[in-house]
Specification:
7-stranded mixed sheet; 40% helix; binds 3,4-dihydroxyphenylalanine
Length: 347
């Protein structure tokens, strides 16, 4: 019966609650179309109403009007609820204090290590990584260390296994071991950068630590010369410490390079005039470098008559100390938030 249908619809409307709508705007519109649209329920019911016998028309007509009114009222109710929600969004007080949850940041050593790697990658060096537990061959022998070199001594190296007649195993004392592994497994041209952690048996103080980080670079190809090394060093120093930076090379000795040198940069604190950081000299010692010793190339299966190369190695802690004027090595490893947070802003 038409009367019952209308009553059912009235009931439906009564039980519809705006809070249950997910996409309010769309659902309100759907509600409107369903009841009041051209092809909506009310028009349909009015059509049916027309063919009712006259004696029923009065009662059903009233019910129909009620239904129409109820649908309109419901829509009005929905709209004002929406407006209220909008309004409360508009009146949100943006000056209210907020609880910022702290986010982590990179450690300053990672930042500096990434920066060094980045600078070299811009001129074609790719990252090479290798093991931290190494054998004597990769740490010393292949790098032309004589059998009685003091670095092989217990004083400097943490040995994992040390037995007469056996290949010794140790925590790597430098990242130069990565050079050997790369040269053994790749043919020139080789252009790699090896960032990583190294270990030495040292007492911990402001100036020394038993764990620290190095970045090693190696370039092997036909006709690589000392001039290539020098140009690369100058480029690196300017990128790392600023365009005004100057470099100087002092002759030095490393078993794996010949000739060897140490590079200084003009002091970035006093600009070369002399201060307590550069101990009055105007220069800061930065890294060791040299032309790869032909013995090393040969040990790694590369013909020294065809190829030459340069290598360099630097300490990451020292780079960070010079860049950010950090005075005590121990700060890097203590994880004191008052120290770490000073580098939040650099990424
Ligand atoms: N391995 C050296 C050290 O630990 C650093 C070094 C010096 C690396 C000269 C090199 C180099 O590649 O050519 O002190």
């Amino acid at each position: 019966m038409l009367k019952d249908q209308i009553k059912e619809h009235l009931n439906d409307i009564h039980n519809t609650h705006v809070e249950n709508f997910k996409d309010r705007m769309a659902e309100i519109e759907m509600f409107r179309v369903r009841y009041l649209g051209k092809k909506g329920l009310l028009n349909d019911l009015f059509d049916q109403f027309k063919s009712l016998p006259n004696e029923e028309k009065r009662e059903v007509g009233q019910l129909l009007n009620q239904l129409k009114e109820a649908a309109r009222e419901k829509i009005e109710e929905f709209r004002s609820a929406m407006e209220l929600a909008e309004e409360s969004r508009d009146t949100l007080d943006c000056s209210m204090p907020v609880d910022f949850s702290p986010v982590g940041s990179r450690h300053v050593l990672s930042v500096v290590m990434n920066e060094i790697t980045d600078i070299f990658s811009r001129i074609g060096f790719t990252v090479a990584e290798s093991v931290e537990i190494e054998d004597d061959w990769h740490l010393f022998s292949a790098l032309n260390f004589p059998p009685d070199h003091p670095a092989r001594d217990m004083q400097d190296t943490f040995f994992v296994e040390k037995e007469e007649g056996k290949t010794d195993v140790a925590l790597r004392t430098h990242t130069s071991s990565v050079q050997v592994r790369v040269m053994e497994n790749n043919k020139p041209p080789i252009r790699i950068i090896a960032p990583g952690r190294v270990f030495r048996n040292e007492a911990i103080s402001a100036r020394a630590h038993c764990i620290f980080h190095q970045v090693e670079a190696l370039y092997v190809d036909k006709k690589v010369t000392f001039a290539d090394l020098k140009q690369t060093l100058l480029y690196f120093a300017k990128e790392m410490f600023g365009e005004q930076t100057q470099i100087r090379l002092r002759p030095s000795y490393f078993p794996f390079t010949e000739p060897s040198a140490e590079m200084d940069i003009s002091c970035n604190i006093c600009g070369g005039k002399g201060c307590n950081i550069c101990k009055g000299t105007g220069w800061l010692e930065i890294l060791g470098c040299g032309m790869v010793d032909p013995n090393v190339l040969a040990s790694c299966g590369i013909d020294p008559n065809q190829y030459s190369g340069f290598a360099l190695g630097m300490g990451v802690e020292r780079m960070a100390m010079l860049k950010y004027q950090i005075r005590d090595l121990r700060l890097y490893f203590e994880n004191d938030l008052r120290f770490l947070r000073q580098f939040d802003a650099i990424v």
